[in-house]
TrEMBL record:
<keyword id="KW-0968">Cytoplasmic vesicle</keyword>
<feature type="domain" description="Rab-GAP TBC">
    <location>
        <begin position="70"/>
        <end position="345"/>
    </location>
</feature>
<keyword id="KW-0653">Protein transport</keyword>
<dbReference type="GO" id="GO:0010008">
    <property type="term" value="C:endosome membrane"/>
</dbReference>
<comment type="subunit">
    <text>Interacts with MAP1LC3A, MAP1LC3B, MAP1LC3C, GABARAP, GABARAPL1, GABARAPL2. Interacts with VPS29 and VPS35; indicative for an association with retromer CSC subcomplex. MAP1LC3A and VPS29 compete for binding to TBC1D5. Interacts with AP2M1; indicative for an association with the AP2 complex. Interacts with ULK1 and ATG13 (phosphorylated); indicative for an association with the activated ULK1-ATG13-FIP200 complex. Interacts with ATG9A; the interactions seems to be restricted to the AP2-clathrin-associated fraction of ATG9A.</text>
</comment>
<dbReference type="GO" id="GO:0005096">
    <property type="term" value="F:GTPase activator activity"/>
</dbReference>
<protein>
    <recommendedName>
        <fullName>TBC1 domain family member 5</fullName>
    </recommendedName>
</protein>
<dbReference type="GO" id="GO:0006914">
    <property type="term" value="P:autophagy"/>
</dbReference>
<keyword id="KW-0343">GTPase activation</keyword>
<dbReference type="InterPro" id="IPR000195">
    <property type="entry name" value="Rab-GAP-TBC_dom"/>
</dbReference>
<keyword id="KW-0967">Endosome</keyword>
<keyword id="KW-0072">Autophagy</keyword>
<keyword id="KW-0472">Membrane</keyword>
<keyword id="KW-0813">Transport</keyword>
<dbReference type="GO" id="GO:0015031">
    <property type="term" value="P:protein transport"/>
</dbReference>
<feature type="region of interest" description="Disordered">
    <location>
        <begin position="475"/>
        <end position="508"/>
    </location>
</feature>
<keyword id="KW-0597">Phosphoprotein</keyword>
Amino acid sequence: MQHPLQPEGEQETGFDPLHNLNRNLSCGGSLDSSTLSESTFLSYRKEWDDLFLNSNYLTRIRQAGINGRLRSSRFRSVCWKLYLEVLPEDKSQWINKTKELRSQYEKIKETHITNPRKAAGQQDLVVNNPLSLDEGSLWNKFFQDNELRGMIKQDVMRTFPEMRYFQEEDVRTKLTDILFCYARENEQLLYKQGMHELLAPIVFVLHCDHQAFQHASETAHPSEEMMSLLNPMFQEHDAYAMFSQLMETAEPWFSSFQREGKEEMLTSMPFARPQDLGPSVAIVTKVNRIQDQLVKKHDVELHMHVNRLEIAPQIYGIRWVRLLFGREFPLQDLLVVWDALFADSITLDLVDYVFVAMLLYIRDALIASNFQTCLGLLMHYPPIGDIHTLLRKALFLRDPKNNPRPANYQFQQNLDYYKTRGADLVNSTRAKTAPLNINKVSSSLLSFGRKLIAPAMSGGVASVISPINSEIRSAPSPLTAAPQAEPLSSGHAPLQTHSQSQHQPLLKSESMPVYLSQGEGWEHIHTLNLTGILGC
């Protein structure tokens, strides 16, 4: 569909903000510069009016986002702020709300990014010194903050390595500061791997809009609303507000806490660091429901095939959902996907159907493939020629009565590459640790495992288990591993002598924790080590 502000004859898929800016700047040699600048601002102003001047503007820009008409927009960030409810629908409140949010971020940053040297003269040096272990010491907080910032910085350094913009030190500092402040404002959640990949596209969209604003306002005076909302000085502030709103919906997909009424139960390994915690019950439930209900509803044959191969949706689906498909599409296509996800609903309900549409696009290749090739296809998702067709498919799957049936298209390429990638994934995870086959674990052994972490041990169990302060060693290498135990039969655990138990160490698995009482589908994970596969 032709964008209303797009030059006639311009292909929509090749029209993006940065390309548009470069194209306009390069035209100066053949056109009068003042005429060109005036024309640029007029088109800029016209786009603003077309998007936001109408009384029913919010419905219109939602449709623009869902139908893929924001690819060339110079006000995508403003649309996202409205979708994510960073800005209210009432345009008269935009400027005040924007000032309020920016002021809040200034206070948050001032509170959490501290320098103990500056406050040294106002503090008790007995408590406030670099060697103090006092919990209230600014130095103690400073060292903890440095550890958290170091963990965040490691991920930020790996953000979109192919893009020069994200290699700039100023951009990396902004990303780190935003994620650090968010972690300190949300102490229960803190920072989790993958959050940087949700923040980076937001920062990039703001950057593109700021570039367009600066270029358009070189020779003409923009409106007060434009100057307020698109001020490049507040890129970091605006990005924090948008990211925080996005995390209101995405937080359960990262959290390791399950909320049921008043109780909050940690659903991961005891003594694990926050960054080591396994996937939450919410994300596991979500991806299981998508594969076991939605995929089954729309393609029974595909559902039976992935179940027969024991491909658990957690293997690929956790990354797809957490990162909002951030690693599955090129950035320009990803922004179009996010346009639709945000415009559709702040609850991101369309995610489930984009997930299913992606599986249906490669369904023929999946059904014709073995486990390794399927894994390669799912973890290295094939390129899509037209992202708009995929989104139309997702909308049709959700509501076939009100959305036209899109053209049926399938991925048709040689599968050797994906077979190799899948084999690499399997081999790399096998090298890390021997997998745990849940299907071979009897109920009696599970009961025995629970007793290992019971606060009060019975006398019979105590004679078998090493003291609580005994060494817990890492899993042995394949060269030194003990022979595998015989499969359990008749529901009984193998007998173990007292002397054997004293010399057999407890093993610490490197695999993602297995939840024995929550969610479905964990029994399928026994073939793989999720830590090496999820990648987020």
